[in-house]
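Translate structure to sequence.
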């Protein structure tokens, strides 16, 4: 599982943790609902999660990552904030991908750095 966070929004550490958790829960939930064949392996190997950053200030870049994941048949999600604290309502804060095979996710996320 990989979660990509926008750093241009200047979210605090707690906010980033919250957005990351939202993505992980959404991915897990959709994996159950859609019978993701990679879910059991992911659970058995300690539920690994990698958090990456994107420095772009363009929401369309995040949408492109999400759409590329969908195009490659990877479980994915978009996280939009409720707008109650640090960012505006509906702001796209994170994209989550997985659980899927690492090599499949890496094709999309290989150019991003660890948060």
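Result:
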């Amino acid at each position: 599982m990989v979660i990509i966070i926008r750093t241009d929004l200047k979210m605090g550490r707690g906010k980033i943790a919250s957005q990351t958790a939202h993505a992980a829960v959404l991915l897990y939930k959709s994996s159950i609902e859609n019978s993701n064949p990679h879910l059991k392996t992911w659970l058995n190997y300690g539920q690994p999660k990698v958090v990456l950053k994107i420095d772009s200030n363009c929401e369309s870049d995040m949408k492109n990552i999400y759409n590329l994941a969908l195009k490659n048949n990877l479980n994915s999600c978009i996280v939009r904030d409720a707008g109650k604290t640090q960012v505006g309502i509906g702001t796209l804060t994170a994209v989550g991908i997985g659980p899927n095979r690492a090599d499949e996710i890496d094709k999309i996320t290989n150019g991003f750095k660890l948060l």
